[in-house]
């Protein structure tokens, strides 16, 4: 039971540390609304990573406050209003920087943990 709590805690920390990168990456191709961003993260990770809506929206708000994304409300007939987000030029730059940083970090972890040939 304690072991599971450690795993859950570790996974939560990994998610928190990667959340901005994951969200920015989903917006690279086109604007998306929050729920769709969460679905796309889960789809691309083949179910290994998922975010509850309640934990995803604070990330979106934080990215918007930093000027990395911009949101606008869209109303469609027969649907409820949705806020769509898109990357700003600063967001594209940050995504590129984070990809470089994460790539170097993951390579270092693989080497240090002996996962290179696993």
Describe the secondary structure blueprint for this structure:
Blueprint: H1 2-26, E1 32-33, H2 34-44, H3 53-65, E2 69-74, E3 82-87, H4 89-113
Antiparallel strand pairs: 1-3, 2-3
Question: What does the average pLDDT come to?
Answer: 87
Judging from the principal axes of the Cα atoms, what is the shape?
A: globular
Derived structural class: mainly alpha
Largest pleated sheet: 3 strands, antiparallel
Treating each run of at least 4 consecutive H or I residues as one helix, how many helices? 4
Distance between the termini: 28 Å
The third-level CATH topology is Arc Repressor Mutant, subunit A
Q: Tell me the helix content.
A: 55-70%
Series of secondary-structure elements, N-terminal to C-terminal: HEHHEEH
- The order of strands across the largest sheet is 1-3-2
Give the CATH level 1 class. Answer: Mainly Alpha
List low-pLDDT spans: 1-7
Would you mind describing this structure in some detail?
- By secondary structure, the protein is mostly helical.
- The protein has a single domain (2-110), classed as Winged helix-like DNA-binding domain superfamily/Winged helix DNA-binding domain (Arc Repressor Mutant, subunit A, Orthogonal Bundle), CATH 1.10.10.
- It has 4 helices and 3 strands; from the N terminus they run αβααββα.
- It has helices at 2-26, 34-44, 53-65, 89-113; strands at 32-33, 69-74, 82-87.
- It has a 3-stranded antiparallel beta sheet.
- A hairpin with a 7-residue loop joins strand 2 and strand 3.
- The protein is globular.
- The model is unreliable at 1-7 (pLDDT under 50).
């Amino acid at each position: 039971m304690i072991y599971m709590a450690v795993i859950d805690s570790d996974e939560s920390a990994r998610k928190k540390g990667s959340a901005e990168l994951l969200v920015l990456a989903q917006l690279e191709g086109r604007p998306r609304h929050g729920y769709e961003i969460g679905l796309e993260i889960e789809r691309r990770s083949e179910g290994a990573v998922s975010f509850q809506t309640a934990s995803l929206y604070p990330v979106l708000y934080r990215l918007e406050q930093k000027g990395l994304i911009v949101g606008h409300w869209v109303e469609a007939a027969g649907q409820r209003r949705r806020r769509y987000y898109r990357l700003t030029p600063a967001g594209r730059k940050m995504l590129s920087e984070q990809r470089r940083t994460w790539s170097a970090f993951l390579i270092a972890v693989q080497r240090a943990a002996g996962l290179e040939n696993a």
